[in-house]
């Protein structure tokens, strides 16, 4: 049985949620005070995801690099692999906020978009 | 020398200045200008590429530049002049003249009916906490490192120790790890996290970066470049405990030891500052002690969410517009002071308004001195409790607020009220 | 580099630089060597910032004589060299009757040194002059001619003026030894080759003994006595107007409170003999002791008002005394070593040393075209708004404010680089960029970029000071295909 202690980050309550299961399925979950917390802890237990924010090299931009982000969270384990991919690319004009620069990175369903001023 | 006339001038084009300028324009100020020293608007948000902004204000989770973008694109619909690359040299708070140095226009004199100070804040340095040791290259405040990495694309080091568990420190721990550095430790002198728990989870735990509470750095090592640090556990008086020293090898030390409102310009204008916040004393309309000079954002007190900055700054902009348009009232002042377990309150004054609706609300923002669970926050007029609210927990890293109505404030018998924070058991005694 | 010279001066701290400037008044080929990457020496860059007047030295001592003689020279000197200087005066305070007795003796000692204008003060008089002092003070000795100076600017000005008058200055060049033959100096070995010369001045401070030994001179040793300092913010309400000094103890003058020419307050120094000649670290204990003692004089002092802490190493000498001498058997060698007040005595020490050299056979023929005037870098922050407007119209880089705490523009930084600054610290000492409240937090990324651009070096080669103090590892996100 795999038990995990998860601190919820959805709101400042920071509830300590205790999750039990086999790693892929949850059998017991306690300590949450709202449904968002329950959902978060469940996802965190089974397949934690994170939004990646970083910079990419940019050609013809006002600075050497440009801020980007994933438009949805991606699997936590894939963060460093995503960094590798993005660090080896260069972005060019047009520099429009929200433009997709990498589609469906690592098959995660998330796009990498320009997150600029 | 170029001279300009405006109804409202906003010093600073970061989130506070942007919200204030837009609000001033929306509330009837015809000629509004923003003076910004950088080559573009956005302030510190330009380098805050992480997300966490806008949950409250826009209901979306945005990266810093995206949050700024939402304000900047609104400027197009309004007649607001923006002076970029212009550094404010002097503020004459009595005559309402702002002097700036512009690369394009030379020395400029801006005459305004109302001025809004929105200069933000700066970082506390190694010196203000007196870290002993040598003075090698490789010691950075976290924000400076953030700029070098996120804007200039320079890597500051490979093996990093971070002093201070503030949000900036934790964010940089993650950022540097993502860019290939090894973060050896985050060291915090207090017994509790200085920043948000969410950042501990997503920046430290996610990357197995150890957090040492109740610890401090007792020496920086390295002749020309940082070679390591010595850390030690501290006692209740925050003094290093002999025998607990440990050496950690690193080539970079990041400091995330606090932010200070950036008030050089305010001091030059003889604006009275609050000793504890380090920012101007302001009333509920965000007016400083100098008539027609307003302040908002981190220059008043260091906020924890930019969303709150935007809300406060909208107020400042509105009232600056009112002042510029002659819609101004002075009245009896009620001072709002920090009491038990409250470190500071902003704004610090309420000015009674005959013409305003007595149901109008004022939010008072404050930070507690100690973390506490199950508390009741109270506003006290002498012994009488004017307003109260319960919270499951409070901690110094997160700003709290208490909202009072004009009626409640004007009904005070004394000219001083205090905001306190006691445990629920004590409160019910 | 010059391979021959009439005189080689080793060490570009206050003493060496002043000597080089003095020599540049004569028709001589002079070379000034400094092993650090920038001029300024070591102790001359990390001290109390005051210009002593010699009142409290042992009458008859050489540094007392030089201190008394140098003090009045500063007014004209700093005017010629465009250096900030203020004659603010000093009050030595007594905390008890024993101290008061000491001060009475000190006044007599001052008279014996030729300093006649000190005055004993009552408690009331002291507190009237300095209201922020503690009421535990029982009296004081007022020394009106004690002064403060911009120590970085002074040495930089000596060197710039010397260079303008023909002196060749080489930084990053270590003088390794003296080439002696038949009891005479033939040259100076450096890490860039030998300079043939008949006269060498040893102004090497803490390292003078090592240099002297190469000529067989081993009758003295230099050792470091560390002094730790706090530098506090500008315009603090509790700042004294004058230098406040305690009654000294055996090791040192004690911890003073010294206003600086820029409005900061310097607290310190401590006095601890250490082993390592390069250890300029600050210590927990040292800083604590400074704070404790200065708060006895000004109780309101708050360490949170500190802008930075640093330490300097006094170049002490055993046997303990200041020495200016020639040495039998090493004709052409002159030594000026052993003072803890190099800045203060420098103008007088320079003349004294050149006198000694003349007596030792150095031919001195005055130059007709020696120019004593040196103009400092025109600072945007010191100009009037109209002048600032003119400057910007002439060069828009004057409006590109790089250091916001001290208001330093890109144009001044470029001028500092033109005048020889090659590192962030070198720029800092010339312009104060990075000396303000944020201690370089705002400006250093921009200064690094300017240095990289102007010196045409990659940003990872930009240094804080010496080689090894580079700020950056390199660029992130190397191009595809590039090896790490």
Commentary on this structure:
The complex is a heterotrimer of chains A (117), B (429) and C (484). With 117 residues, chain A is of the alpha+beta class. The radius of gyration of chain A is 18 Å and the shape is elongated. The model of chain A has no long low-confidence stretch (mean pLDDT 92). Chain B contains 9 helices and 28 strands. The N and C termini of chain B lie far apart (66 Å). By secondary structure, chain B is α/β, with parallel strands linked by helices. Chain B has 3 domains: 191 residues, FAD/NAD(P)-binding domain (3-Layer(bba) Sandwich); 133 residues, FAD/NAD(P)-binding domain (3-Layer(bba) Sandwich), CATH 3.50.50.60; 100 residues, Immunoglobulin-like (Sandwich), CATH 2.60.40. Helix content of chain B is 20%, strand content 36%. The relative contact order of chain B is 0.13. Chain C is α+β, with helices and mostly antiparallel strands and 484 residues long. A 6-stranded mixed sheet of chain C has the order 9-2-1-13-21-20. In chain C, strands 14, 16, 17, 18 and 19 form a 5-stranded antiparallel sheet that branches. Chain C has a 4-stranded mixed sheet with strand order 6-7-5-15. In chain C, helix 11 crosses helix 13. The C terminus of chain C is likely disordered. Chains in contact: A-B, A-C, B-C. At the B-C interface, strand 6, strand 7, strand 8, helix 3 and strand 11 of B face helix 8, strand 19, helix 10, helix 13 and strand 24 of C.
Characteristic key phrases:
heterotrimer; A: 117 residues; alpha+beta; CPE0013-like fold; 2 domains; five-stranded mixed sheet; three-stranded antiparallel sheet; 18% helix; elongated; B: 429 residues; alpha/beta; FAD/NAD(P)-binding domain; Immunoglobulin-like; 3 domains; seven-stranded mixed sheet; five-stranded parallel sheet; 9 helices
